[in-house]
Amino acid sequence: MHKTQMMANTTPSSSRVTGLLQIIERSAGAGLDDKNLDSVSQATSKILRILGQQEKTLSESIVRKSKVSQALVTLLMTTQDVSLHLNTIHILEHIASSSNSKCTRLVRQGAPHALLRSIAATSRVRPLLEELCIRQHLLLLKLAVKGTTGEKKLALKARLCGVVTVTLDLAKQCINNIDLSTPLLQVLKIYASNSSNSVSLVKNGVLNLMERYFSLYGKQNIAVFRHALDLYTQVLSFRSNASKAASSGATRKMLDLYVYWTDMDKLQKFIQVRKSILNSVKHLVGNESGRKALIKSDGIAILYATAKQSDEMKQEIQRNCTSNQMDFKVRCTNSTGPQELFKKTGSEQQAANPNDLAVLGKAIDNLALTCSQIIRKSMPKLCLPIPSLHG
């Protein structure tokens, strides 16, 4: 009985929560000054504690109120206090994570525009407020993915707010910070979906920056590496950017990177990484300088050997998928050719799932298909030996 009373005393009442929400709503209408700044900061801190207690009824009363979310968006644009800014972003993250409809509501209330403005303001503060930058970009990602704004609309708003180069500069400054690099690279990929933003990123050195990410991060930090690779591929999807990258020697660099990952991926765990690298090469060979660089680097022979090896691996998988009682183990391959790709491992291990092997075979098939597409693009065009109709 005593324990129940203690819990009742520590849990805030609904009337108390209503009072805290009213403080935030009034601040949005009246504006922030020295008098009400402390009260608003305390109110947001208490609301965060309530959301952290996971009281379902009280949390829903906070999340479902449209006036509260609108007031929080207004606070995001007007406040310059770091602690209040962080509290506001944390509460907005709770609202955005509750449901897609709540996230869409935040988008309609102008949360992406407010976030972009706050990112621009935060970038001018020294020393850099890393925690605030992380939370801003993570919330921006949620609004882009779950909201109805769409990546292209958000990319347009980012350019109009002048935030594209701001996020790129942050990525340059925080290249050694894994926690901060991840959301920055993801947001940059969204920005790069717009052609104007993509050209601006290339002018400001995004390709050289991604090459630095490739050299710093690899198998040990595969998530950051993949985000950097996805951004690199997204930027190269525009022909003008691919032409500039090919002229600066990017074709040879990506081919060397593909060879490195092919040799390292002995257990075929990083097929998607290799596929992303090939997609970058595919964009690069869309122009004449890229095709010449690939031929000069002996890329045709390398890709042909890889495609042939992948085809042999797929055939071996198809043969072994028909046997339900055979155990398999992926073995490494060397430069001379595949070595015993699958082998019986005995009764000490469980039998391989035929569905998993089928998925692996399909992924390897896609890898070989991309290699063949690059080869067809790069090989010089020859006339068929057909005599002329005139003689």
Describe the fold and architecture.
With 391 residues, the chain is an all-alpha fold. Helix content is 73%, strand content 1%. It has 21 helices and 2 strands. The protein has a two-stranded antiparallel ribbon. Helix 8 crosses helix 10 (151-161), helix 11 runs antiparallel to helix 12 and helix 14 (206-216) packs antiparallel against helix 15 (222-236). The longest helix has 25 residues, at 354-378. The protein is elongated, with a radius of gyration of 27 Å. The relative contact order is 0.05. Mean pLDDT is 80; it is low at 1-10 and 324-352.
Instruction: Note poorly predicted spans.
Output: 1-10, 324-352
- Strand percentage, roughly? under 5%
Beta strands, count: 2
What integer value in Å does the Rg equal? 27 Å
Number of helices: 21
Structural class: mainly alpha
Question: How would you write the strand order of the largest sheet?
Answer: 1-2
